[in-house]
């Protein structure tokens, strides 16, 4: 498998997702870290994006609801180089009808070497890393595309 290096920009694009029983945990975490998140591009699946925007005042771009295709939408954005960090507070004790989509999302996150946090502790570690506030280079699978563009239209090569 071929790999290539891309530069992750200083201004990250962060996907925020939470299962129903974890939405309060994500809301609490985002509220606590509002100052660290506000200078980055935030997006989230349906209800989660709306809840976070309403309760924190942060601009969180809404995508489709997770069970209706939002998890797959995020996965596609990851494979296009449009997401740098995925914060997904999932519920490991509750079977979801879209569990295969969640598993696929975790797989694609790992395949494309993006930072992934599934709980508040790991998310705290990500935000406290010096790499969070700077640009850095990662190696990803080369999927044959000649050009990556993130949400702000910056070229990644």
UniProtKB/TrEMBL annotation:
It holds the Pfam family MGS. InterPro entries: Methylgl_synth (IPR004363), Methylglyoxal_synth_AS (IPR018148), MGS-like_dom (IPR011607), MGS-like_dom_sf (IPR036914). Its EC number is 4.2.3.3. It catalyses: dihydroxyacetone phosphate = methylglyoxal + phosphate. The active site is at residue 71. SUPFAM superfamilies: Methylglyoxal synthase-like. Gene3D superfamilies: Methylglyoxal synthase-like domain (3.40.50.1380). One of its GO terms (cellular component) is cytosol. Residues 6-157 form the MGS-like domain. It is an enzyme of class 4 (lyase). Keywords: Lyase. Substrate binds at residues 19, 23, 65-66, 98. Catalyzes the formation of methylglyoxal from dihydroxyacetone phosphate. This is Methylglyoxal synthase. The gene is mgsA.
